[in-house]
Amino acid sequence: MKRKNTVFFDLLCYVIIPFTIWNYGREPLGDYYAILLSTVPGIIYTLYRFISERQLNLLGLFIITNLSLTTLVNLLSGSAEAMLWNQVYLGFAFASVFLVSMLLKRPLGLYFNVDVAYMQGQERSESKRLYFTKGIFRWFQVLTALFVLRGVVVNSLKAWLIVTYGVDGYGLMLIYMQIANWTMSILIGGGFALANYKAIQKQKEIDGGDQDEPGEQETPAGAKA
């Protein structure tokens, strides 16, 4: 999916349609069901992207788990305000998972990148060997720290909006949350780019003794260690 189309469909499915459902649905449906219904377009869109982009293994499992738990929490909340708060608690819980993975020296950001590299033709064992080398591993810790930061920032903002505006501010919340998510996604994208750049430099060092011309050396995305 092209970046321009992604931005358009992000706005459509995460902001415009949910905002419309909230505005026109809260009176006949009530706050709880209006919010619950407004989450459906985002869930369907996320599943579509998951299937179309063929995100597999740990990365795909994380996305599916996130969607499943979020949907379950929404359904079991019972009220609009409880649903919003439960989403905040769940968001902090996911941030904690990323933090624990860092403390265990098994940063999830590293394994996500292994999945991406695998879809580009890199063997998992080769990617892991490269990413866990000294001088590269710390950058994947930094990348995973950005996921923790996103969880803390986005969910702290959501908690503040709930306290400040309550359920009545849900429409405004959709806009602020999308801006926050985009901002943090840009930072995380930069984190992936930096970690991969460092991995490319490390791979060039490893391949330094080869007789290949520099233009013929493979990058980590397709390199053979």
In terms of topology, how is this protein built?
Blueprint: H1 3-29, H2 31-38, H3 40-52, H4 57-77, H5 80-103, H6 108-119, H7 124-131, H8 137-165, H9 170-206
Helix pairs in contact: 1-2, 1-3, 1-9, 3-4, 4-5, 5-8, 6-7, 8-9
Outline:
The protein is an all-alpha fold and 225 residues long. It contains 9 helices and no strands. α3 (40-52) runs antiparallel to α4 (57-77).
Number of helices: 9
- The structural domain count equals 1
Order of helices and strands: HHHHHHHHH
Integer average pLDDT: 82
Uncertain spans: 211-225
Proportion of helical residues: over 70%
Strand content: under 5%
Shape: elongated
For the record, give the distance between the C-alpha atoms at the N and C termini, rounded to a whole number: 31 Å
- Structural class comes to mainly alpha
- Computed Rg: 20 Å
Biggest sheet descriptor: none
Q: How many beta-strand segments?
A: 0
What brief labels describe this structure?
0% strand, mainly alpha, 225 residues
Notes on the structure:
The protein is mainly alpha-helical. It has one domain (3-206). It has helices at 3-29, 31-38, 40-52, 57-77, 80-103, 108-119, 124-131, 137-165, 170-206. α1 (3-29) runs antiparallel to α3 (40-52) and α4 runs antiparallel to α5. The longest helix is centred in the C-terminal third of the chain and has 37 residues, at 170-206. The protein is elongated. Residues 211-225 have low confidence and may be disordered.
